[in-house]
Amino acid sequence: QVQMVESGGGSVQAGGSLNVSCTAPGDIYRTYCMAWWRQAPGKEREAVASIDSDGSDNDGITSYRDSVRGRFTISKDNAKNTVRLQMSNLLPEDSGVYYCAAANLICRGEWWYLFDAADFGYWGQGTQVTVSS
Hints:
Oligomer: single chain
Order of helices and strands: EEEHEEEEEEEE
Number of helices: 1
Helix content: under 10%
Number of strands: 11
Mean pLDDT: 95
């Protein structure tokens, strides 16, 4: 069984901050594209941010959807096999269920035009993020 376990999220007022985290099995954590997706009621699930290995010991190669760039930061804690999404200056439209996901693919740039959720084989359970006006 491959399990991706999420934590964090919650409720804040607009302008506030929240984090979501995801712990993954080591091999997946180290080598797969790891991404955060979100889904709001009545909308399609959309990729928010991702981090991919470049084969070095750096912090990975990150991608962000335009709507969150500058407000969200994706990072990896290698000691804990954990991917974190730090969300700041939150807006009501950021509300939704946030999912971490992993895929054996290269996720660089605006990769979501090439791949969709079906291409990701491993998913967290989802965690609610609610931003109030």
